[in-house]
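Components:
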Amino acid sequence: MKILIVDDFSTMRRIIKNLLRDLGFNNTEEADDGLTALPILQAGGIDFLVTDWNMPGMQGIDLLKTVRADETLSKLPVLMVTAETKREQIIEAAQAGVNGYIVKPFTAATLKDKIDKIFERIETQA
Amino acid sequence: MDSTNKAVQLEAAHALIDALESDDENEIKHHLGILTQSQENELFDEVGKMTRELHDSLSNFSLDHRLIDLTNNDIPNTRDRLNYVISTTEDAAHKTLGFIEKTLPLASDLKQTAEKIDESWHRFRMKEMGVEEFRTLSDEIASYLPDVKKHSDDIHANLSEMMLAQGFQDLTGQVIRQVINMVEEVEDNLIRLVKLSGQYQVAKTDKKVVDSIKAEGPQINAENNPNVVNNQDEVDDLLSSLGF
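Structure:
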């Protein structure tokens, strides 16, 4: 299981990377916005995407829409971890096909819970 | 200087020279008066022009919605944002310090007991220990090992909390970026104001286009805004209401 972590703040990428390692996910890659994330995703091999919303270059919501519109990536599970808390934004992300939405600041338990739920749902659909 | 004014001044100057040469005091006064008068007219014209420009600039300034908007909303909002940065960094520092204070005694406790057991164990290996003393050592080791596990778990949990507390850097960083953008906008508007005081400039009345999903970073005063969720539970409720 290879996970791509996309956030413009290196501290947050490091936090998520460490939390994922605690949960048993040792194989992670990092990108600092949607534009740098896309080539990594398109190169293949990423099984799970964790992305922030508010980033310079390409924002997380646009990255999500691009992923869903890309034939080879459209099924990729996407978890959004963001400080964006407006109802319209959460609805927009849901409509764009996000698999989970976590608001910052968050806890390790929330991250585990959302990731577990995403995989449970994928397994029941499969 | 316009050509009519120039002709009048030239004629008066020639007549003044004639009057000076013929030493005609009345004529000298008369033509000097004409010359001074035309100079004053020009000054009045200039003052009038400047007054009009100043008036235009001022009305122009009062029509600049963005500058008014910045003063009324963005600057007070910036005060809230900077206060948010102070309280968020303060909370994170206290949280981290709190977990350090919880962790240090755990590490000390492990070290002290290990030292004590190590010393006894050494005496046991040197065959310097009686049966009764060995029984005590055995009890100590038996109670120490579960403590090691428990303390290690607690230390791991505390370190994870300390790590999570560092998320403040992302949250405050986003807010500080917004403040920098606001300061740049105020600077641009002040530069325009300086230009306006020198020359006429058409006011830009560009109002910001409202984009309801535009990224805004952490919400300040979220409790007072019904359009904003306050925690993960509210996010989950909203998503489940959408069938998630």
